[in-house]
Amino acid sequence: MSSTVELTKENFDQTVTDNEFVLIDFWAAWCGPCRQFAPVYEKAAEDNPDLVFGKVDTEAQPELAAAFGIQSIPTLMIVRDQVAIFAQPGALPEAALTDVIGQARKLDMDEVRKQIAAQQAESGSAE
């Protein structure tokens, strides 16, 4: 049984809202690097059962890919507390994926929210 969740425009918002930590793999069946990354992603999902691992088929869900500005696949995105804290195109090797997950787990989300608020305040006052 797969430990990843197929994300669609119907369940995406709910999944991200209901879960504190969601990893998202934007992929397509025709994409060679996506197929190479899939077993690495599945293994990470098995190794981190406390996290939600989602997959977005960019062919079946073009609106989601467009909403996040996905221009190359595979792209890995990590959302914590409804904030996208990581997005990177390319198939990560297992060690790099493990490292990224570890770093994302250690992030102080209060600090991240403060930085976002500060950036929004700056961009708001620049207009």
TrEMBL record:
Presence of the UniProt keyword Electron transport in the record: yes
CDD domains: TRX_family (cd02947)
Pfam families for this protein: Thioredoxin (PF00085)
InterPro entries registered for this protein in UniProt: Thioredoxin, Thioredoxin-like_sf, Thioredoxin_CS, Thioredoxin_domain
Chain ranges passing through the membrane: none
Domain Thioredoxin, chain residue ranges per copy: 3-106
Entry keyword RNA-binding: no
Keywords: Disulfide bond, Electron transport, Redox-active center, Transport
PANTHER family from the UniProt entry: GEO12009P1 (PTHR45663), THIOREDOXIN 2 (PTHR45663:SF40)
Family affiliation: Belongs to the thioredoxin family.
Protein name: Thioredoxin
